[in-house]
Amino acid sequence: MEPAGVALERKIIDPDTYFDHNRPPANLQRTHDQVASFLEKHKASSRPIVLVTSGGTTVPLENNTVRFVDNFSAGTRGSASAEQFLSLGYLVIFLYRENSLQPFNRHYTHNQKGLLDYLQLDNGNVTVDPAYMEQVKSDLLKYLSSKDRLLQVTFTTLSDYLFLLREISRLVAPLGSQAMFYLAAAVSDFFIPSHSMAEHKIQSGSGDLTLRMNQVPKFLRPLVKNWAPLCFIVSFKLETDVKLLEPKAKHALEKYGHQIVVANLLNTRKWQVWLVTRDQDPCVLQISKEDLDAGRDIEQDIVAELARRHKEFMSRDA
Ligand code: PAZ
Fold first, then answer.
1. Alpha carbon of 186 to ligand 1 centroid (Å)
2. Per-residue confidence (pLDDT) for residue 12, from 0 to 100
3. Looking at residue 5, what is its pLDDT?
4. Tens of pLDDT along 26-42?
5. 25 in a structural domain
6. pLDDT number for residue 10
7. Which protein residue's CA is at the shortest distance from atom 10 of ligand 1?
8. Which residue, 241, 212, 253, is CA-closest to 11?
9. Domain residues for 176?
10. Quick one: which atom of ligand 1 is closest to the CA of 101?
11. Which of 105, 108, 125, 180 is the most exposed place for a label (fewest CB within 10 A)?
12. Is the pTM for the entire model greater than 0.90?
């Protein structure tokens, strides 16, 4: 049965034509230049590189956007993973939803405590509260020692994300197996094309609102086949029904031909994931409740395992 108020139209839009009919984001050219100079700066380093995508996408309901459809993703997975990749020596391009969590800073911008809660006034000088000194020092050291290898790029809407993903993929693609794509962003499956959208704020005077949304083209296909065919590509699959998780992850691998799907469930994603490949049984990674409560991130294990597999992938190519 269709969800109330939402009419699903079975019309698949070709990924290639998507870009002809939607507006590019204002930061597209700037991002191109920043990524190109980041790659140039680190050209001689021979470090592996990863593009981490993070956070949810918004889907506007009006061209002059007042309202939009969004999703739950806070960017925890992506930002924690970016930190782990940096600690393993990777160059990281972090493509994240504006105002979602960022590597290192995420520890000071979450709901329970903000930056000011870590500070105190000491005879008119601002200092770190001694209770948090060790933590702040450790986060600051990690940040300072890796920020040169981190490039952050923001998106807000689904369309921004897709344009930026294509642009960055094409720039990174020449690095071949040395580059990993870690596609943790929660990208909307449905959208309203610009030409079918209301131009101005939808008025409430005419009663209930019925939305007709198109299916977002599957961009993993052109990414794997055309934009970055030689790179190591890790996609993510989120479900709420455990029965669907493995079959859908396997189906994606068969259909797109990339290397790994990280599968997770909405309610257990912070402590359990499955790494799914085409020809092996899924590998379960999980951490205990005690570790989770003590602040350990499962991303440490996910990234360590993926980096190991990426190394094997690179060595096959050597
Ligand atoms: O951002 P977050 O830490 O709250 O959630 C992470 C996640 C569940 C969005 C990610 O692990 C994921 O599964 N991304 C892909 C979602 C999907 O399009 O199926």
1. 5
2. 65
3. 39
4. 999 999 999 999 999 99
5. yes
6. 52
7. 184
8. 212
9. 15-317
10. 1
11. 125
12. yes
CA distance 158 to 147: 27
Residue 4 domain flag: no
Q: Can you give the CATH number for the domain in which 69 is found?
A: 3.40.50.10300
Q: How many separate domains does the chain show?
A: 1
Q: Which ligand 1 atom is the nearest neighbour of the CA of 266? A: 8
Q: In the chain, which ranges are continuous DSSP H helix?
A: 15-21, 28-41, 76-87, 133-146, 158-172, 220-222, 242-256, 289-293, 299-317
Query: What are 109's strand-pairing partners?
Result: 114
Indicate if ligand 1 lies below 6 Å from the C-beta of 57: no
Q: Could you tell me if residue 5 is inside a domain?
A: no
- In terms of Cα–Cα distance, which of 251, 247, 287 is closest to 269? 287
- Average confidence (pLDDT) over 176-201: 95
* Confidence bin at 8 (pLDDT 50/70/90): very low
In a domain, 19, yes or no: yes
Q: Give yes or no for residue 258 CB within 6 A of ligand 1.
A: no
Q: Which residue has the higher pLDDT, 92 or 1?
A: 92
Q: Is there an atom of ligand 1 within 6 Å of 56 CB?
A: no
